[in-house]
Write a structure and sequence with these properties.
This protein is an all-alpha fold. It has one domain (about 1-260). About 85% of the residues lie in helices and about 0% in strands. The chain contains seven helices and no strands. The chain has helices spanning about 1-60, 70-80, 85-95, 105-165, 170-180, 190-245, 250-260. It is rod-shaped and about 135 Å long.
Length: about 260
């Protein structure tokens, strides 16, 4: 009798242990699923908050508008690309978790965000020609201002140079020196002073031309550097949002199947 009951008792114990293991496994799975759901809720809530921040920032960038001003246009492009992290991270967090733990209303909203990623990608791509045209306009405008300023200063120096050359007598030279309030060293004749002033005026013109050329080079380097930076970030942003649109295809397929049913 005892020998017959022993296998049955062992079988019952094994079944009981198996049932306990299954219950523990179910608890672990349920606990893990709850943790994932809470994490997804946290991520998505943070994503929606970041998208609201993006909306506030991007609207503020357009106020006050000055669409014909290349400086404003470059500042706009710079602000948009420098704050790329807000919409990129926000949309990533909102799309986290796929279809899981979403109500039907949220699925409709996520579908809109999925299409919005493609629209945002196109907008960032359009920043490239806008940045290029604004950079060219600003460069031409800056170069023209530098040339105009150089011409004005050279004209003023040449005017003084003409007056010095036309001063032939000592009295005329002394009168010109007094008008220009030039400090004259002692023991120098008016003719020597005239020659010295002409040399200094020639050096001044050379310095003006050299200084202006350096400013033109610095301005050219700064503008090109800024354009390359904006173009690279805008290109990367375009790729990010296109990839995000491709990855979030589940959001668009989901609602289209539901609608067909």
């Amino acid at each position: 009798m005892d020998s017959d009951q022993t296998p049955s008792r062992n079988l019952q114990e094994e079944l009981f242990k198996t049932q306990c293991d299954l219950e523990n496994t179910n608890l672990l799975v349920r606990d893990f699923s709850n943790q994932r759901r809470q994490t997804a809720t946290l991520f998505r809530g943070t994503g929606y908050a970041l998208l609201l921040v993006t909306l506030v920032l991007y609207v503020n960038f357009f106020i006050p508008p000055a669409f014909g001003n290349p400086v404003w246009q470059l500042q706009l492009v710079g602000n948009l690309v420098q704050n790329l992290a807000f919409p990129a991270v926000g949309l990533t967090l909102v799309l986290y978790g796929g279809r899981n733990w979403r109500q039907r209303r949220e699925l409709a909203l996520v579908q809109g965000f999925s299409y919005a990623t493609l629209v945002v990608a196109l907008l960032f791509f359009m920043l490239l020609p806008l940045s290029l045209s604004s950079t060219v306009r600003l460069y031409n405008q800056g170069q023209a201002e530098l040339v105009q300023g150089l011409d004005q200063r050279l004209t003023a120096v040449q005017r003084v140079e003409t007056q010095v050359k036309q001063a032939t007598s000592d009295a005329q030279i002394n009168q010109l020196v007094n008008q220009m309030k030039v400090q004259t060293p002692s023991g120098i004749s008016p003719q020597q002073l005239k020659d010295q002033m002409l040399v200094q005026l020639t050096q001044a013109k050379s310095k003006l031309q050299t200084g202006t050329e350096l400013q033109r080079q610095e301005q050219r380097f700064s503008i090109i550097k800024n354009f390359v930076q904006q173009a690279l970030i805008a290109s990367i942003a375009t790729g990010i949002f296109i990839w995000m649109w491709w990855v979030s295809a589940w959001a668009r397929v989901r609602l289209s199947r539901s609608a067909s049913k």
